[in-house]
Structures are given as structure tokens and as C-alpha cells.
Design goal:
The chain has 135 residues and is mostly helical. The chain has helices spanning 3-18, 24-54, 83-103; strands at 61-63, 66-68, 109-111, 117-119.
């Protein structure tokens, strides 16, 4: 199947939902299933694709209308082994807990063990989503 055929299928699924011909939950489950299979397939070929791209060196590569670049992994730093960092992180957790408690307090603050007011955290909510599990 060519990319355009996949895209046409996805468009048809959306159209049928919008026209009331397909239950939105059924369409959602179908598209999520396709997404999962696609993610697995991409993960299976990623290492080989990186090695193939690496073999071209710095040369610009254009394939199927796309410029293919290799972006090397970026560094990640861990500070967990630094005692000063760990102590401050632990202190911050305490402040966060107090601030969460203040969020449910009618006054909008709580008083910590030192007599200082801790303001309520700003609360936002994520967008609702659908969770799928095997039946």
C-alpha cells in the first residue's frame, strides 16, 4: 500500500464519523490499533535506518521527497548523586506537598512548621483522553 492510500483510508474513516456512518469509538479503536502497529514497525527499523543514514556521512540525502538528516542523541545529565542537589530536591518536594494542601484549603494557603505561609499551587487540568485496554 502506498502512503497516499493509507492517508485516503484515514480520511475516509474521519469522513464516515463526521457523517454519522461509523461509531466514533470504533473509529478511534481502529486508528489507535493502526498507530500502535505503525509505532512498532518504526521502532523495528529505526536502528537500521540510522546506520544507513550514517553511512552517507555529511552528504545531503533526499529520499521519497524528504531530506533525511541524522540527529545524534543529546546529552542528559543526572544530579542525583550530588548531596546538595538531593537535599534541595527533598526540600522542594516538601514545599510542593504543602502547596498542594493549600490548594484545597479555603484560605488559599497553609502555614509550615516555621510559621511561614505557603501559597496554594496553581492547578490546571490536562485534556481528557480515551484509554484502551484489552477486553
Amino acid at each position: 500500500m502506498k502512503t497516499e492510500e493509507y492517508q485516503a483510508h484515514f480520511y475516509q474513516v474521519v469522513q464516515k464519523v463526521e457523517e454519522g456512518l461509523v461509531n466514533p469509538l470504533d473509529a478511534f479503536i481502529e486508528l489507535r490499533s493502526i498507530e500502535s502497529a505503525l509505532k512498532d514497525a518504526i521502532a523495528s527499523v529505526t536502528d537500521a535506518a540510522c546506520e544507513e543514514r550514517r553511512s552517507y556521512g555529511k552528504e545531503e540525502i533526499v529520499r521519497q521527497g524528504s531530506i533525511v538528516e541524522l540527529v545524534e542523541g543529546s546529552p542528559r545529565y543526572s544530579y542525583k548523586h550530588i548531596p546538595q542537589w538531593a537535599a534541595l530536591k527533598e526540600k522542594m518536594k516538601g514545599i510542593e506537598q504543602m502547596s498542594k494542601m493549600a490548594s484545597s484549603n479555603l484560605t488559599g494557603y497553609v502555614v509550615d512548621e516555621n510559621g511561614e505561609e505557603v501559597e496554594a499551587a496553581e492547578v490546571t487540568y490536562t485534556k481528557p483522553y480515551i484509554k484502551l485496554r484489552s477486553a
